[in-house]
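Reopening this one. Same input as before:
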Amino acid sequence: MTYRVLWLQTQQAFDVDSEESVLEAATRHGVDLPHECTFGGCGTCRMKVETGSIAYPDGELPMAMTDEEHAQGYALACQARAQSDLVISVEQGPACSPPQTLTATVVEMALHSPDIYHLALELPAEHGVRYAPGQYLNIALGNGEVRSFSMANPLQGNRISLQIRKIPGGQFTDQMLATTRPGDDLQVELPHGNFHHHAQDYQPMVFAATGTGFSPIRAILESLLDDEDCPPIHFYWGMRSEQDLYLLDELERWSSRLYEFRFIPVLSRPSDAWTGRRGHVQDAITQDFDDLSEHSIYLCGSPRMIEEAKAVLALSGAAMDKIYSDSFLFQNAAAALADAT
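Same output, byte for byte:
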């Protein structure tokens, strides 16, 4: 059975067979729907089904789709099969240049904390790259594999900053990066991703990160410094212990340059001396907010945190179309587990 799909924002239309995914059909017809993983894990291909119906092959929701989102009419194009003609709404990505492969030079390496590297790269002169704060790049390992890391700063000339968790036995951090020195070259591809600041919302913002999910949020926050139109911001950062927190002096300095900025670290395994918040970031948010219906929410970090946060924040009135997330799906499993605990 063949159905017709209309993408509302672009007015592009294409045919889809009931046995193929909406994304497969769009790609076949040259329609560039946003996507990344293609197996339902990242949520980049999320679409709103305005009219019509869809189903999933096994009857189960994909990993990156919550019951709350499904109930509000959202679906993942990479897994959804059309059961009728469809009208879909898909947010277009941030204003940026197409991805390109460049040779970047390592200019600085340090440790933010005992297990998180600071890595600064310099792009070639006249590189032509434009990325939105919140996006990420891929670093080539030389064997056909890549590792993905969010840029931790807005683009400033040629300099890009990364925050990278050390993984025991990791091919990149424990082998390649351990022997990398300033002056060495790395092959990078950028920009990628759909995570970015949505200025058009113009409402108070809640940011929540686990681990190095701080990285893209840091880039967004820096881009908002001294912005007179910046709405109030709450930033919840989940880590295990006090020693895992880093760049606290910077966040303190930024507090006077961001409108009504409040930073709330939340530790899951603090020492007895810790007097701050304990537990998980999603629970801390719901403890502080009875009603999130007038807030934009940005989630970045472990897939488990994002899944749980979407569910509990929806109970506090958060609108699914105002929850933006970047799931660190592609990081080493050990890093994902560390960020989730």
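So the earlier flakiness isn't reproducible anymore. For the record, The helical segments are 22-28, 67-71, 171-176, 214-223, 248-254, 281-288, 303-315, 333-340.
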